[in-house]
Amino acid sequence: MHRRIFLAAALAASAIALTGCGFQPLYGGPSGVRLDGIALVQEGDQRIDYLLRDELRNSFPDDAGRYRLVLEPADVRRTGSGIGADGIATRYDLLLTVSYRIYEDGNPQHVFDGSASGAGTYNIPIQPYAAITSQREGEELAARSAASRITLQVARFLRTREGN
């Protein structure tokens, strides 16, 4: 009986303590940084560059605003990680690295630059069309991961820049 009362009191005290901790989301919430108003500019013309841009459009929906996010062409490295008995790679690791710059309207000098990486792995089945599909899924995974990191870095920059 006393244990239940003590447990209930502890839960109530922790709930009250957590409400005053001051946590604010970095982006996406009512008190977070707004990510609209950032125009995306893509310099690369490979499939992986378009995948990255499409993933970033989910986070930065506007094409006009105070800032321009310029994406340089992505660097992609593939390494065989699974080797079959015949010495042929059956699984690949894909590492995508992209550098970017942020420009403020009317300012020819960038106000922030950074880079982000995303990783993906994929199997290489014997069937050629299945291998192509598998590779594309690995590229999509790497682009999604890199886009998520870029979004967080840009949100952190905006939060410090805007003074929130």
From TrEMBL:
Keywords: Lipoprotein. PROSITE patterns: PROKAR_LIPOPROTEIN (PS51257). InterPro entries: LPS_assembly_LptE. Gene3D superfamilies: Lipoprotein like domain. This is LPS assembly lipoprotein LptE.
